[in-house]
Automatic annotation (TrEMBL), chain A:
Keywords for the protein's UniProt record, in alphabetical order: Membrane, Oxidoreductase, Transmembrane, Transmembrane helix
Segments crossing the lipid bilayer: 339-360
Cofactor(s) annotated in UniProt: thiamine diphosphate
Signal peptide residues on this chain, from the entry's feature table: none
Any one Gene Ontology BP term: branched-chain alpha-keto acid decarboxylation to branched-chain acyl-CoA
Name used for this protein in its record: 3-methyl-2-oxobutanoate dehydrogenase (2-methylpropanoyl-transferring)
Superkingdom of this protein's organism: Eukaryota
Record domain Transketolase-like pyrimidine-binding: where: 66-241
Listed EC numbers: 1.2.4.4
Lineage of the species this protein comes from: Eukaryota, Metazoa, Chordata, Craniata, Vertebrata
Automatic annotation (TrEMBL), chain B:
General function of this protein: The branched-chain alpha-keto dehydrogenase complex catalyzes the overall conversion of alpha-keto acids to acyl-CoA and CO(2). It contains multiple copies of three enzymatic components: branched-chain alpha-keto acid decarboxylase (E1), lipoamide acyltransferase (E2) and lipoamide dehydrogenase (E3).
The protein's name in its UniProt record: 2-oxoisovalerate dehydrogenase subunit alpha
Biological process (GO), any one: branched-chain alpha-keto acid decarboxylation to branched-chain acyl-CoA
Catalysis: reaction(s): N(6)-[(R)-lipoyl]-L-lysyl-[protein] + 3-methyl-2-oxobutanoate + H(+) = N(6)-[(R)-S(8)-2-methylpropanoyldihydrolipoyl]-L-lysyl-[protein] + CO2
Transmembrane portions of the chain: none
Homology family: Belongs to the BCKDHA family.
Lineage of the organism: Eukaryota, Metazoa, Chordata, Craniata, Vertebrata
């Protein structure tokens, strides 16, 4: 009928999970890392992490069961107790933070060391740069990675270039910026973003994304120690969902070193943050259903990435959370493999704001992509 | 009737810090006791109609009236000398000797030095033990930190440095210079707000010279300049005649003393005029009249004012003027020639100091460039660069 509106149509077909996720969840071996409350039907796979070994030495000492935000708190606690110049600041960090990452720190260390700032990200990062230039340790919190863009100029034009433009007379290396990162299912446009690709283009800073509490504490402590300004993105979906036994004392996981989680011979799967757990599931499914042997790599440091990471096969599947167009780091990741890399496939995990479906969890999609990849 | 517990916000006056001996000013320049007003809460009954909003300490009013910004009669401009270099109010004379100017590394005879900077350097110049600014390899008492240009982006960083000095109990302040154009940047707003809320010992020094490249102040802001913004942030503010060395000296010195003693920011807006072009790429006759520039150059020039003052004191005369001009010109030309002869830095420096340690991907790029230059070096003007 002329003049009437057509009914609202959803532009993308809703993908259905197949097989049912619960079957997968219960069929896997008991892991060291588990999800105590797996409410996300798209994300049933509990990640498994081998006991942490650094430089072939087991990380010893008393451990405590911690989820991701607690491991962050532990790292910050270690830092504040050992470094009298260290300060933590950002929006709402004083009462403990919207994700509880700074609970108890203000009472323990004082209001001059853990304090709120006005609602102004460019101010938070700019202020942090100034603190770092004097040699003090500055740990700035951006409330969500989605809000990091007002600070983009400060990060790219000031922090990243401070050492270079002064010929190493000055630097803001003791600055670390932390931000909750990545989709969570109900976050909408502004509580879900994964902006690491914007910063991967910027020489002078380091960008780090952990996959679990054990990794998070070690990597965050390394970022704080590192003599370059670092951005540490924390997968918010894992704040409560991921739990591990984490050493109470400080330990350091080296930056710019990728980790091979599973060796394989047919295709290499590269990811970081939450997506590492998804591709582990994919690797298992590919092995069971297709007989494809997948190597799984956690990149951890996006910039400067690990150029020495071995890519034995000449086919790589890189996947990430961000929008498809220019979201991947594959032009950079091409340098990981041999120079005669035949094909690089980008698979974008499209997280719809109101729908929790993962492309790669869909068996049909996996089969289509991986079959084409191999053939 | 049930008595409701309410709180009322009343002002409580705190005394500021004491002056240190080494910073003692002449008694006539010591201002009445510095005070800062904080809000304190006390109980009262809900029967009283008093505002209880946490966001502001104010009374109710029952007549609709908008506040009219006053830009016709704005914040007054503090000055010590008139245009002929005579001290107007002897009580404001800082009684600075010629020797003191020199001790602070200021050449009062230099035709190239702007009095704002001269006054600043002297006002900040420490007596024993105090320094202003950040650590830097510097022979003088004032340590500059790197800046891109007086860039507004470094404003919040200055506040961060001041906070770190406060935590360090170092009795140090930071001074940050910027123009009235830079004050429009969001970073300036961020810097002001952070300095006030975090109580940082910082001096915000705005040089309002009437133009940001070609943009006049009428297109930069509509309020009463930059000084009027300070109170909006809770910042102590003053407007000074930027062409008056002694006024700048007095204001800066007192602001620095109080910033350290009271841990609060100060905003100084120095009014002046940009006689020269913005840069060597600019021809300002495209956007302003030559007559306007000539007025400031001939009749209201800051260096001339200082010169008249020094002549009046017997510190300067025509002969010294002639000989100093000759010496200055020679020094500048020599420096020019020396700089022109210098080679440009080696292309290898493109990759160093990007990070503290050079990562492998930059090493590879550096090696690739070296290989490229070995093969195709004749296509590049390598003779102008160091090896």
């Amino acid at each position: 009928m002329p003049g009437s509106c057509s009914p609202l149509r959803f532009p993308y077909p809703l993908l259905h999970l197949h097989p049912p996720p619960s079957a997968l969840f219960h069929s896997l071996p008991s892991p060291l890392l588990h999800f105590p409350h797996p409410p996300f039907h798209h994300f049933p796979h509990p990640p498994y992490t081998a006991p942490l070994r650094l430089n072939n030495v087991s990380v010893a000492g008393q451990t405590q069961k911690m989820n991701l935000f607690q491991s962050i708190t532990s790292a910050l606690d270690n830092t504040l107790s050992r470094d009298p110049t260290a300060v933590i600041f950002g929006e709402d960090v004083a009462f403990g933070g919207v994700f509880r990452c700074t609970v108890g720190l203000r009472d323990k260390y004082g209001k001059d060391r853990v304090f709120n700032t006005p609602l102004c990200e460019q101010g938070i990062v700019g202020f942090g740069i100034g603190v770092a230039v004097t040699g003090a340790t500055a740990i700035a919190e951006i409330q969500f990675a989605d809000y990091i863009f007002p600070a983009f100029d400060q990060i790219v034009n000031e922090a990243a270039k401070y050492r270079y433009r002064s010929g190493d007379l000055f630097n803001c290396g003791s600055l670390t910026i932390r931000a909750p990162w990545g989709c969570v299912g109900h976050g909408g446009l502004y509580h879900s973003q994964s902006p690491e690709a914007f910063f991967a283009h910027c020489p002078g800073i380091k960008v780090v994304i952990p996959r679990s509490p054990l990794q998070a504490k070690g990597l965050l402590l390394s970022c704080i120690e590192d003599k370059n300004p670092c951005i540490f993105f924390e997968p918010k979906i894992l704040y409560r969902a991921a739990v591990e036994q984490v050493p109470v004392e400080p330990y350091y996981i080296p930056l710019s070193q990728a980790e091979v989680l599973q060796e394989g011979s047919d295709v290499t799967l590269v990811a970081w943050g939450t997506q590492v757990h998804v591709i582990r599931e994919v690797a298992t499914m590919a092995q069971e259903k297709l007989g494809v042997s997948c190597e799984v790599i956690d990149l951890k440091t996006i910039l400067p990435w690990d150029t020495e990471a071995v890519c034995k096969v000449n086919r790589m599947l890189e996947n990430h959370f961000s929008p498809h167009v220019s979201g991947s780091l594959s032009p950079l990741l091409a340098s990981i493999g041999p120079w005669n890399l035949v094909g690089i496939i980008f698979v974008c995990v499209i997280f719809l704001c109101h729908s929790m479906v993962t492309v790669l969890s869909n068996y049909r999609w996996v089969k289509t992509f991986v079959t084409w990849l191999i053939c | 009737m049930h008595r409701t517990r309410c709180v009322r916000v009343t002002p409580v006056v705190l005394r500021g810090g004491d002056m240190s001996e080494s910073d003692a000013l002449p008694p006539h320049l010591v201002l009445s006791s510095p005070q800062r007003v904080l809000r304190q809460q006390q109980e009262f009954t809900s029967l009283e109609e008093k505002p209880q909003f946490p966001g502001a300490s104010a009374d109710f009013v029952d007549k609709l009236d908008f506040i009219q910004p006053n830009v016709i009669s704005g914040i007054p401009i503090y000055r010590v000398m008139d245009r002929q270099g005579q001290i107007i109010n002897p009580d404001e004379d800082p009684q600075v000797s010629a020797r003191r100017w020199q001790d602070c590394g200021v050449e009062p005879r230099s035709h190239l030095l702007h009095p704002t900077h001269a006054g600043l350097s002297s006002g900040l110049c420490p007596t024993a033990g105090h320094t202003a600014g950040q650590d830097a390899p510097s022979s003088g008492p004032i340590s500059p930190a790197p800046c891109t240009n007086p860039s507004p982006a470094t404003l919040p960083a200055a506040v961060g440095a001041a906070y770190a000095f406060k935590r360090d109990n170092a009795s140090r302040a930071v001074i940050c210079y910027f123009g009235e154009g830079a004050a429009s940047e969001g970073d300036a707003h961020a810097g002001f707000n952070f300095a006030a809320t975090l109580e940082c010992p910082i001096l915000f020094f705005c040089r309002n010279n009437g133009y940001a490249i070609s943009t006049p102040t009428s297109e930069q802001y509509r309020g009463d300049g930059i000084a009027a913004r300070g109170p909006g942030y809770g910042i102590m503010s003053i407007r000074v005649d930027g062409n008056d060395v002694l006024a700048v000296y007095n204001a800066t010195r007192e602001a620095r003393r109080r910033a350290i003693a009271e841990n609060q920011p100060f905003l100084i807006e120095a009014m002046t005029y940009r006689i020269g072009h913005h840069s060597t790429s600019d021809d300002s006759s495209a956007y302003r009249s030559v007559d306007e520039v000539n007025y400031w150059d001939k009749q209201d020039h800051p260096i001339s004012r200082l010169r008249h003052h020094m002549v009046g004191r017997g510190w300067w005369d025509e002969e010294q003027e002639k000989s100093w001009r000759k010496k200055s010109r020679k020094r500048v030309m020599e420096a020019f020639e020396q700089a022109e002869r210098k080679l440009k830095p080696s292309p290898q420096h493109l990759f160093s100091d990007v990070y503290c340690e050079m990562p492998s991907h930059l090493q590879k790029q550096q090696e690739a460039l070296a290989r490229h230059l070995r093969l195709y070096g004749e296509h590049y003007p390598l003779e102008h660069f160091e090896k």
